Every structure is written in C-alpha cells, then in structure tokens.
Prior knowledge:
The structure holds three protein chains of three kinds. Chain A is an all-alpha fold. Chain A has helices at 7-24, 26-51, 65-85, 87-99, 102-107, 112-118, 127-144, 155-186, 190-200, 212-225, 229-240, 247-277. Chain A has twelve helices and no strands. The relative contact order of chain A is 0.14. By secondary structure, chain B is of the alpha/beta class. Chain B has a six-stranded mixed β-sheet with strand order 5-6-7-3-8-9, sandwiched between helices. A four-stranded antiparallel β-sheet of chain B has the order 11-12-10-13, with helices on one face. Chain B starts with a helix and ends in a 20-residue tail after the last helix.
Amino acid sequence: MQDRPSYLLVWLTFLRNSLVRDLSFRSNFWVECIASMSWVAMNLGFYLLIFSFTNSIGEGTGWGKFEFFVFLATTLFINSLVQTFFMPNIQEFSDLIRTGRLDFALLKPIDTQFLVSFEKVNWPSMANFFFGIVLLSVSVYNLSYRSENPLVLTPWMVIGYPLFVLCGVAILYSLMIVLAASSIWLGRNQSLYDFWFYITSFSRYPMEIYRGPVGHTLQLIFTFAIPILIVVNVPARILARPLGIDQGAATQLAIFALFATAFSLLGSRWLFVKALKSYRSASS
Amino acid sequence: MKASFGTTPCCANDPTAAIIEAMEPIIQLKKLTKTYEVYQKQEGLLASVRGLWHREYKQVEAVRGIDLEVQQGEFVAFLGPNGAGKTTTLKLLSGVINPTSGTASVMGHVPWKRANAYRRKFALVMGQKNQLWWDLPAQDSFRLHQKIYRIDPAQFDRTKDELTELLGVRELLGQPVRNLSLGERMKMELIAALLHSPDVLFLDEPTIGLDVIAQHNIQKFLKRYQEQRKITVLLTSHYMKDIAALCQRVVVIAHGIVIYDGSLDGIVTRFGGYKVVSLLFADDRMPSDLARFGEILHWEPPKVKLRVERADVGKALSALLDKYEVADVSVEDPPLEQVIAEVFSLAPPESSDQKAPQHAVQGV
Amino acid sequence: MSSQTAEHEVSPPISDWSARVATWWAIFQINFHEKLVYRGDFMLGTLMRFLPIVTQVFLWSAVFGARAAQEGDAAGETEIVGYSYHNIVAYYLLSTISRAFSSMPGLASGIALQIREGEIKKYLVQPLDLISFFLLNRMAHKVTYYIMAIIPFVIVFYLCRGFFDGWPPPEIILAFIASLIMAFMIGFFMEASIGMIGFWFLEVRSLLFVYMLFSFFLSGHMFPLDMLTALPGPWGLIVKSLPLMYLAYFPAAVFLGKIEGWELVIGLLVQLAWVVAFMVICRLAFHYGVKRYSGYGG
C-alpha cells in the first residue's frame, strides 16, 4: 500500500462533494450566481460612466475602453477562480483554528496545506468566470475589428494569456496562505480577512495609474514586496497590448512574474509549515 | 506506580501474555511536558484600556512530565478532573501539538513528526468536535476518507458495511449529517475514524452529551470492536460507566502528572484509606460516643454508618462488639465515585524536580 | 386617561431614568469591551478602510489627466460635472464619514435571522421595546466605533488636507452634522424595516442583496451622484426620488458646498421626512409582524 494518497482523486472528491452540497441548496445557488453577476454588471456600469468622460485611463497609456475591458475580464477570471477554489477555505480556516477542528486536518495522512486550502469549493462563484468570457470575447472582437491598429492574435498571446492568468491565481493563493499562517499565530483576525480585499483592490486597475512619488512607491511595493500588481496586469497586457506600454519592459515584467509566482508559492509554503509548528489547538 | 502496572492483570489469562509482555510497548511516553502561554484578560473598562499597551501572560503547565507505557491490545482509560492534561496528552500522542519537552513513540513513530505512515495507522475521535461535512450525507465524507487514506475500494466497502451493520446506521448513510441526532452523529464519527482500520485509537470523551441508551450502544460497540481487532485504545471519559465497562487499566492524571496507574478497583485500595462500617444495633441502647471511632456518615437509629480509618477497623469493631448488642455488621470499601472525587480534589502534588504549577486552568 | 397618569408618562420618576441610563451604560460597556479585545485588529481595519480610496484617487487622477490632454485644458482646471480632481478626492474622503454614520452592518440580516430562528421571542417577553433596544445597541456600537476610529480618521484627513479648500462656513458645518445624524437614522430604520420583512418571508437574503447593490450604486458610495444626474434619461429622477442618496452623497455634497441656499434647506427637510417615514414604517412593520408571528403560535 502506498503512503501518499492520490492528490488528484482527493481533489476530484472535493469538487464532487462541494457540488453535491451546493446543489442541495438550489435556490441559494442561483441567488449567489445572480448576485455576483449583478455586482459585476454594476461595476461595468461604473466604468462605462468613466469612459463617458474620458477615452482612456491615464494619458497616453493606451488603456482605452476595450483594452480596459480586457483588463476587467482578466480580473474576473482570476477573482472567480480564487473565489471558487480558495476563498471558502480561507474563510473557514480561522474557524478551524478557533474551534480546534484543525486537529482533524493534522491527523490525516495527507498534506495539511493541501487539505485545508482545497477542501471546499464554492461553485456559484464560477458565474463570473462565464461573465468574463463574454466580456473578453466582446472586447477582443472590438479591438480586432477597429479601423486603426486592429489587434492581431498571435500563438504567444493565446498560450501566454492563460499561463499568466494561472500565475496570478497562484500569487493570490500564496497571499491567502500567508494570511492563514498568520492567523495561526494571531488567532481570530477579521481584519486580516479585510486586508485581503483591500490589498487586492490595488490589482484592479492598470498599474500605469500609480504615478507621482506616492504612486511609484506603491508600484514598487506591490510589485516586489507583495506582488499584487502583476497578478492582473501581466496577462491583461499580453492580450490587450495597450499602445502606451513599452513592450521590452512588459516582457521583463512577465519574466519577473514567473519568478514571483515560484517564490510566492515556496515562501508561503515555508511560512505555513512554520506556523503549523506553533499551532496549539483550541481547548475542547 | 510502575509496580502496580507490572501486576496489572489485563493479560494474565491470555495465553499470549508472555509474548506481549516481551514485546516493545506500542506506546511509550517519557517525561512528556507541554506548557502553554495564556493571555490574562483583566476585568473592567480601565484595565481593558491598559491592556492596549501591556499584556500579561501566564505559563500554564498542562502536562508536567508524563511517563507511560502501553502494550499492544490494551484498553486504557485516562481519568482526571477537567484541565488535568488528559486531552493534551491525547493531542500530543496524535501529533496535533508539539511537546515542550520529553519524548514519545507510538508504533515506532514520533507523533508530532506527522509522518504519513504514522497517520495512516491511528485515529482520534473527539466527542466535542466533528469532522464530517455538516451539509452532506455521511457516506460522502466516508468516500473522501477512502481517497485520503487510499483504502482499497473492496476493502472500504467491506469495512463500511461491517461498521454500519454493527452500529445499526445503515439507513442513515444518505441523510445530511446536520439532520442526525447527536448519538447518530457520534456513530458516524466513529465509522469515519475506523474506516482505515487503525491499530491505535484515541477516544476523547466519545460519549459526552449522549443519553444513557446511546452511551450504552457506543460502549457495547467499542468493547466488541476492540476485542475482535485487538487494537490498542486510549480513552478519556467523565463517565465512570464507560470506564468500568471498557477498560482493564486506568491511568489517573491530575495536575499534569500520572498519580495512579492500575486497575479501576485498585484505586479504592490505594486512595480509599478508610472503610465504611455499617452497624445495626439489636436494642435501643446505642453508644453516644460513636464519633470517636470515625466520622458518622449516616445516623438513623438503630442503624449507623461510620467512616473508619482502615488501620483502626479491627480495634473499633472489637470495642463495639464487646460492649453492645450488634445485630448486623458490614465493612465495605467506599464507593468508587467517592474515592475518585477525593483523589481529584487533592492538592497539587509536589514533584521532586519541578515547582508546583499555578492552577492548571487550561481547559484541555 | 387621567391627567395624573399623563403627567407620569411625560416625566418618569428619576429611578426609572437612572435604571435606563444604567442599561445604556451596560450596553455601551459591552460593546466597548468587545472592541477592545480585538483593538489591534480594529485600528488596522479602520486604516485599511481607506486603502480602496487610494486606488480610487489614482484612478480619478488618471481619468482627469487623460481628459485634460483630450480637451486641451491646463492641468488642474479640468472638471467633470462640476467636480475638480481635488473635489473628487475630498468627496471620497467625506463619503467615508457619511458611511461611518449610515452603514449598519449585519442589522437587517441579524433581525431576519433572529426572527427565523425564533430568538426574537426572547425579546418579546422582556419588558423592553425591541426597536429602542436595537437602536441603543447600534448607537453604542457606533459611539465605540467613533472613539476607536477617531485617530485613524484624523491622520488620514490631516494628510489629505490639501484636497480641501479650508473649512466651510459654520452654518454649512451645522447642516453637515445634521445630515450625518439623519443619515444614521435613515440607515437604521430602513435596514431594520428590511429585516422585519423576515416576519413575512423567511428568506430575506436575496432581498437584502438587491438593497445592498442599489445602495452601493445609488447612495453615492462609488462616485458623486452628479455624474448620474447629468446623464440623459431617467437617472436624475431615480436618484432624487430614492432615500439612498442621503446615506452617502448628501452629507458629502453639503460639506463641499455643492448644495446651497434653498436647495440645502429643502434637502434637509426631505431627509427629515425620510427619517420620519422610515420610523413609522419600522414601527408598523414591527407591530403587524409580531401580530402575524404570534398568530402562528411561534
């Protein structure tokens, strides 16, 4: 008998069990789908409003309406993947610590980080993924068929885009693991959870908007210290090709994103294992 | 303590006893300690404000040095008041927490290294926590266990059928766990824990909160299962009935150390330093100075119950029988619950190399 | 009713009042303690609440920059629906104050949950007025919040003082404070009324979500509502006929001097009317809700 479980089979069971649970609350399932989609629709309305006052976000950046909607669709892909697969777990994690149910995770002959970060899947959050597909298709269509500078898709764009979307998901996942690790040390920590939302809000706009001394400091911090900015920017730039951005610098950033992804995954793993050592288990 | 363990009659009638005695113990703890830091919250508004800048921590020694050896196939009970360190010891043994000092080995593994090979071979059941998915039928959680423990599908089906049959929960498998009663849920938890056929089982208050019938069912099941499989079980419980029904060996833990290790009845011999003497006087002539023989527990002329130091029983009886007409007399050990309650209320014992802890308040 | 009992109702005996004050004090203390336990959390959380504004500020800076280039304006002179770049930043900062007064996290869902779980019965048998109890609780909660949050707020506003054109005149400040207090009242009574829909429908979640969605978009939390009212179509009418704008937009716009003179007076009166309306709605909803509830026999 082998020591290690088959992680793929276990993960498929997670997917299946979560789907069974989600479908047993059917009306809730649809409400959640519609809710998150209307939320995005409202945001889209806000950006349409902005583009009624200007033709690009930032002077000379090239983030026009449809370029920005490619960016927005990328945000939707990454966020919906994170919210489907990781968010429910991280939300439950501080609960696991508080009630001491993390004990059970530690008992299982399976990697603890894998178990606590993949177990729950929130299927309704995938609704926005489909919203993203529609938005991306419309935007790319518009970019490709405009009269000046039509967008031409290359194989590199088609391969690179999903690859870097996944890198973005991995970076956000690592950040969540860091937060989870810190909640082992600090106990219940609601603001850590809020922290997640506030920090990730920086990733929602093209990084070119962060200008001036403060803006540049933010760019540096959120590129190199907490690599939030590259999460959406790198894949979105690959597909939208905004004109104002130097392609050489963009390529450098993409290469950096690969290293940042690897480093975040390893670093967060290291921190998590270290934090588990100081887990003290809630009194029964 | 060690001496009393040596004479534990748990395996005396077992023909394999000699072999088992010769084997390495399956569980071995040496000088195991665990100290927690606990934040002391102050009462009152001002004190809370002061807490903004300054926090006081207190060291709580939940386990102060436990030595223990358990042989394969034993069913051992941990007995002790709340906060004595029973649950902490179980958590250390299952590798959930790391010890402050000391060593432990279970089936040759160091528990807190959490090797997969170790984690496949034991299970922990906690009466106050549940691990099954709340909104799903238990069978879905079982299937997840099968994948995680990599149980062979045929083997899994066999074990599951057998366990559900034994516990009589076959028709409940398809119901969401949240709709089950507490007792039914506990049975499902037990099945989940036993699906991978562990060699060592840790049970932390498995019958807590259950009604008498459910308690009895769980006891019956555990007894039968342990006898069939000859697995090693460590159990903590507050219910003396659980312990009396299941365990040949009792380890009493108080204030983080082992203060007794032996049979359940042995507790009375060791800690009940007195006997209960019941007297029925034949005529109305009753002595008025009975208190000099010992504390009067019950007074209902012509019947009386006395608590007499064991060494003085002979003297007292001969004096009484000599002077008075006694119709009936009996000398009994004090009731077990009584003795155990007294043991628990003892002051924290000073151990030779350690300062006595502040109260072991940690509710573990 | 005799005049004596009437008088008795107008001025309750002192012991009654002191008992009430003691109750309020106890409620306040409980809230304060609860906050203090997680005080580090709390301060950090309040500071971080300004983080999304930072991104909004940069977003608008980029938008104004692009618009200036597009229209050929001199830097700093571009306006969008009468708001300069500085105005927009000031608006976002001020709207966090409005929100600090008007947002009622967990109020509606809490009431609905208590109704559903039958916990509301616990209150019904106690000699207290449930709505007042919830209101007091919420006030204590808010006051505690302001005490703890004042430091982060002062820091942020001091750092951003350059975006404001000095203090507005005293009468505007008074109007601002009045609108904030009324924003709190509207927020409370509106959310409480929504929660009480739970007496009739068990599942209030989806309804609450619709409310949240509209409130986010139409209260002015996301952008100054002038941008919507300037659009052609029914937007102006929709914004003006809903009470939502008083939750975030109105106080901020008052402070910035966007609403002046008679417009301001009328605005404040309409806001007051909404307060009264929701107080009545809340009372009625509670009255008939409890009736229906006890009709079921719980």
